[in-house]
Every structure is written in structure tokens, then in C-alpha cells.
Automatic annotation (TrEMBL):
Sequence intervals crossing the membrane: 229-247, 259-280
UniProt key word Mitochondrion: no
Keywords (A to Z) from UniProt: Membrane, Transmembrane, Transmembrane helix
Protein name: Glycosyltransferase 2-like domain-containing protein
Entries under InterPro entries matching the protein: Glyco_trans_2-like, Glycosyltransferase_2, Nucleotide-diphossugar_trans
Residue intervals of the Glycosyltransferase 2-like domain: 5-140
Keyword Membrane: yes
SUPFAM superfamilies given in the database record: Nucleotide-diphospho-sugar transferases
Length: 285
């Protein structure tokens, strides 16, 4: 069986890290030749570092200051020796004990994602509309249904992960980026329903992170599927210009400069989308 490196980023998780590591240590003892545990302490200022210093059987990486979720994951993945990477949060929200349930899918898929869709679901109510919109928009971009774009519990091949190294953001959201990257590059992704528990401790996320996620999805969408992303803007510009031109002809017997400008910009954006799509296909070969 392939080896698995568990990578857990930690930032001020003194209430949850002990329980998370107890579960992972039990798994490591069950699969001693398969699982390694890597914990990245991302400049925690609570008792997380003290708790981690007493743990044995883990590879502990310590950031001198907070460098962000994405950067911490990337540091852990670089240090990993496994063929596969398993990531989860340290706050007790994800059922990390279900890692063995993912094993049966490793032969047929490149990434297995835990989907927070079961009855036990403690995603804050105010975040759910934004989450649903991001899932829908990302799925539309890659033409593939995405039930959970940024689930933090997933198992994926390390080799394929490294192909998109330069795309992963320093902070949020590594998970959204790798999801779109794998799907758009035709790697096989399996979604498995999981529980999502109430977190232990306070969250570092804020409502403004929605706009960060949205901007990230736009950037990745333009990178991986520029034609699909830009085509609605092209159609809007050209159709508006044509309608305005018809109106101008009907009432003044001449096409106005604004109509010509809209159609010209629409054609320019279409050309940009076609060239970008061609470049992506060349990169994918």
C-alpha cells in the first residue's frame, strides 16, 4: 500500500490539537509502516507549541511567526515522505478517524474529499449561502459538480499536488485551489460524506474571507478555463453594443461611437479568452 503523510497546520489550537493528535497517533499505531504525522506550528501564541513539544512520534515543524494556512501546508508537504498527503484541521471539526475509510478509493482516484453534508454539520448558518454560491460558481467554471469546494479534510497524491505548486496561495484557500486544479486537469476526485463538528476554540476566519475566496476562484477560473469564464462578459458587451447600434440606426440613422466601442471591446476580450484558452491547452500537454 502507498505511504501517507498526514499534514496538520496549527495556529492557536490549544483546545483541539491534543484530541486530534490522539486520534492520529492511534491510526499511526494501526498502520505503522504507512502513516507519518507532520504538524506545522504556524507561530502559535497560545499553549499549542507547549502541547506539541511533548508529543512523540510526530515530525514537528515550527514557524517563527505566522505565515498562513497555505504556506504551512506547503511546508508540511515539502517535508513529507509519503506518496499521498492527508490534510485536516487541528480544531476538532473534522472526523480524522475516518481516514481509513478513504483507503478503498485510492486505487481509482487521485483525490478523496470529505464533504460536510451529513446531519452533523456545524458550519455557521451565516456562511452557508456564501459557501453554496462558491460551490456552484466553481462547479460551473470547471463544468463539474463540486459539493464542497474548500473542505479541509482530503487525501491526495503528492506528485499531482506538486504540479500546481506555484498556484497555491499563502493563506486562504489552498483547498479551493487544489480542487479546481485537479478537476480542470482531469484528475479523478471522489467525494465522501463526513460529519463536521463544532470547532474547539475561536476561528481565524472572518466574513471578509468570502471576498478573498471569490477573488481566488476568479483567478483560478481565468487560469484553468478562461474561455468559459470570459464568454458571458463577451456576450454581454457584444449584445449590448448591437442593441445600442440598432437603436441608434432606428432613431438617428447612424451607429454611435459607444456602440462601436462596446462591440470592439467584446471582440478584444473574446480574442483574449481564445488565446488564453490556447495557452492553457499547450500547458496541459
Amino acid at each position: 500500500m502507498n505511504t501517507i503523510s498526514v499534514v496538520i497546520p496549527v495556529y492557536n489550537e490549544e483546545k483541539g490539537i491534543k484530541g486530534t493528535l490522539e486520534i492520529l497517533q492511534n491510526l499511526r499505531r494501526q498502520y505503522p509502516d504507512i502513516i507519518e504525522i507532520i504538524v506545522v506550528n504556524d507561530g502559535s501564541v497560545d499553549r499549542s507549541g507547549e502541547i506539541l513539544s511533548t508529543e512523540t512520534g510526530i515530525k514537528l515543524l515550527t514557524n517563527g511567526y505566522n505565515i498562513g494556512y497555505g504556506s504551512s501546508l506547503k511546508r508540511g508537504i515539502k517535508a513529507a515522505s509519503g506518496d499521498w498527503i492527508f490534510i485536516a484541521d487541528a480544531d476538532g471539526t473534522y472526523p480524522v478517524e475516518r481516514l481509513p475509510d478513504f483507503f478503498s478509493f485510492m486505487a481509482d482516484y487521485d483525490m478523496i474529499v470529505g464533504v460536510r453534508t451529513t446531519a452533523v454539520n456545524h458550519i455557521p448558518v451565516l456562511r452557508r449561502p456564501a459557501k453554496k454560491f462558491l460551490n456552484w460558481f466553481a462547479g460551473w467554471i470547471v463544468n463539474f459538480p463540486i459539493p464542497d469546494l474548500n473542505s479541509g479534510m482530503r487525501l491526495f497524491r503528492r506528485r499531482e499536488c506538486l504540479e500546481f505548486w506555484g498556484l497555491y496561495p499563502e493563506r486562504f484557500s489552498f483547498t479551493s485551489t487544489i480542487t479546481l486544479a485537479f478537476i480542470r486537469s482531469h484528475y479523478l476526485v471522489k467525494y465522501v460524506p463526513i460529519d463536521y463538528h463544532k470547532r474547539l476554540g475561536s476561528s481565524s476566519l472572518s466574513p471578509w474571507n468570502f471576498f478573498t475566496f471569490l477573488g481566488l476562484v476568479f483567478r483560478i477560473a481565468f487560469y484553468f478555463n478562461p474561455l468559459r469564464f470570459l464568454l458571458p462578459f463577451v456576450l454581454l458587451l457584444i449584445s449590448t453594443g448591437v442593441i445600442k447600434g440598432v437603436y441608434d440606426l432606428a432613431y438617428s440613422n447612424a451607429i454611435g461611437n459607444f456602440s462601436i466601442l462596446l462591440v470592439t471591446i467584446g471582440c478584444f476580450v473574446l480574442l483574449l479568452a481564445l488565446l488564453s484558452d490556447l495557452l492553457f491547452r499547450q500547458r496541459s500537454k
